[in-house]
Design brief:
Elements: H1 2-51, H2 55-63, H3 71-86, H4 92-112, H5 117-134, H6 136-141, H7 143-156, H8 161-175, H9 179-188, H10 197-210, H11 216-228, H12 232-243, H13 250-254
Helix pairs in contact: 1-2, 1-3, 2-3, 3-4, 3-5, 4-5, 5-7, 7-8, 8-10, 10-11, 11-12
C-alpha cells in the first residue's frame, strides 16, 4: 500500500511537472510568434515610412529597436540614421554622431547575419561616410574593404540595382582621383586600386538594366560619366532624365 501510494504520488508529480512544462512550451511558443510578428510589423511600418520619405519618423521608430538581434531591423536603422544625417536641417555635430551610429548598426547587422546582402551594402556605405570625418587617408585605406562588401552584397543578391550603382560610384571616384590622392593610395597599397570611367559607365548601365529609373543619382552619374568621356549627346539624354525625375527625397532635389 505504501509502495502503491508512493508510485501514485510520483506519477501525479510527474504528470504535474509534464503539464507545467507543456504549458511553458506553449506560452514560450506564443511569445516567440508574437515577437516575430512584432518584428514583421515594425519592418512593414518602416518600409512604408521609407517609401514616403518620412526620414525623421522612420528614425524615431527604428531607434527604439537599436538593441534588437534582427539583422533586417538593424540595417534599416543604419540606413535611417544615415538618411537623417544627410538632411540639411541636421547640424554638423549631429551628422558626425549619426554617421558613426549608422556604422555601428550596420556592423551589428553583419554580426547577426553575414548572409544578409543589405547588411553588407549598408556597412560599405556607412564605412565610406565615416571616412569623410577621418580624412582622405582613412577613406582611401577603407576603399578595398568597401568594395569587397559591395561585391559580397551583389553575390548574395545579383539583382540589387543600388549595390551595382555603388560599385559604379566607387569606380568613378577612383577614375577621377586627383594626383595627390593617387600618391596617398600608392603609399597605402602595394598595388593601389584603380578604375576607369568606362568601367564606371558599365556598372551604371547594369544598375539601370536591373531596375530602370530606380534612382535619380544613377541617372545623374550616367550623364556625368558620359561628359567625362566627351559624349555630350548621351550626357544630355541622361542629365535630362535626372532633371525630370520626380523628387521624393532631399537627395532627389539635390540631384
Amino acid at each position: 500500500q505504501v509502495l502503491k501510494k508512493s508510485l501514485q504520488r510520483g506519477f501525479a508529480l510527474s504528470a504535474g511537472s509534464f503539464f507545467v512544462y507543456e504549458a511553458h512550451k506553449l506560452i514560450s511558443g506564443f511569445a516567440e510568434v508574437h515577437a516575430s510578428f512584432k518584428v514583421e510589423e515594425v519592418i512593414e511600418q518602416a518600409d512604408y515610412l521609407y517609401g514616403s520619405g518620412e526620414t525623421e519618423k522612420l528614425h524615431r521608430l527604428l531607434v527604439q529597436h537599436k538593441n534588437s538581434d534582427d539583422a533586417e531591423l538593424l540595417w534599416r536603422l543604419a540606413r535611417a540614421s544615415r538618411d537623417l544625417a544627410q538632411l540639411s536641417s541636421t547640424s554638423a555635430e549631429e551628422k558626425r554622431q549619426l554617421a558613426y551610429e549608422a556604422l555601428e548598426y550596420a556592423k551589428k547587422a553583419l554580426e547577426k547575419n553575414e548572409s544578409n546582402f543589405a547588411a553588407h551594402k549598408w556597412y560599405g556605405i556607412c564605412l565610406s561616410d565615416v571616412g569623410d570625418f577621418e580624412g582622405i587617408k582613412t577613406k582611401i585605406g577603407n576603399a578595398v574593404v568597401i568594395k569587397e562588401h559591395f561585391q559580397r552584397a551583389i553575390e548574395l543578391n545579383p539583382k540589387d540595382a543600388t549595390t551595382i550603382h555603388l560599385i559604379g560610384i566607387w569606380c568613378y571616384s577612383f577614375a577621377e582621383m586627383p594626383w595627390y590622392q593617387r600618391k596617398i593610395a600608392a603609399a597605402l597599397f602595394a598595388t593601389p586600386p584603380t578604375s576607369t570611367f568606362q568601367e564606371a559607365l558599365r556598372y551604371f548601365h547594369m544598375a539601370e538594366e536591373a531596375d530602370p529609373n530606380f534612382y535619380s543619382k544613377n541617372l545623374l552619374f550616367l550623364g556625368k560619366t558620359y561628359l567625362k568621356l566627351n559624349n555630350k549627346k548621351m550626357a544630355l539624354l541622361w542629365l535630362s532624365k535626372a532633371k525630370d525625375y520626380p523628387a521624393h527625397t532631399e537627395e532627389d532635389k539635390q540631384v
